[in-house]
Amino acid sequence: MVGDLQEGIKIIDTRIGGTLNYISDYTAAGFEMDKGHHFIALHATADQGAVITVEVLGGYYGETTVDPSDGIMILQLHSNAEKIKIKATKNGMAEVQIFDLKNLTLAAAE
To answer: Are strands 64-65 and 15-20 parallel, antiparallel or unpaired?
Structure first.
């Protein structure tokens, strides 16, 4: 559930704020826990027929394609110094947005 991962996420312009909860084990979702214990769930939309990709800049995984059926992405973070890059491409034209995460609080383990 998204509520288990995060609280109070708000996006203002290109800044994301809120709290990411400490997750001790999320390997069932395919994540390697040595790469971070914080996850953010986001939803992206674009014009029909566009391909949306996402990448955590400074993260451990490269660019991945977002499932066009729901636009939902769950990203693993290890620091709020990272940035999230979302790109929508259609007919050879691309629109890119880079989101700053400095306003995110990464909760400590309990």
So the answer is: unpaired
Write the CB contacts of 60 (distance below 8 Å, at least 6 apart in sequence). Answer: 32, 35, 36, 76, 78
Q: Which residue has the tokens 């996402």?
A: 54
- Which residues have CB under 8 Å from 44's CB, separation 6+? 52, 54, 66, 71, 73, 86, 88
Q: Report the domain count for the chain.
A: 1
pLDDT tens track, the chain, 110 positions: 678 999 999 999 999 999 999 999 999 999 999 999 999 999 999 999 999 999 999 999 999 999 999 999 999 999 999 999 999 999 999 999 999 999 999 999 98
Kindly report whether the global pTM for this prediction surpasses the value 0.70. Answer: yes
Domain containing 101 equals 2-106
Spatial separation of the C-alpha atoms in residues 65 and 51, rounded to whole Å = 7
d(CA 62, CA 5): 21
Q: What are the tokens at 53?
A: 């990709």
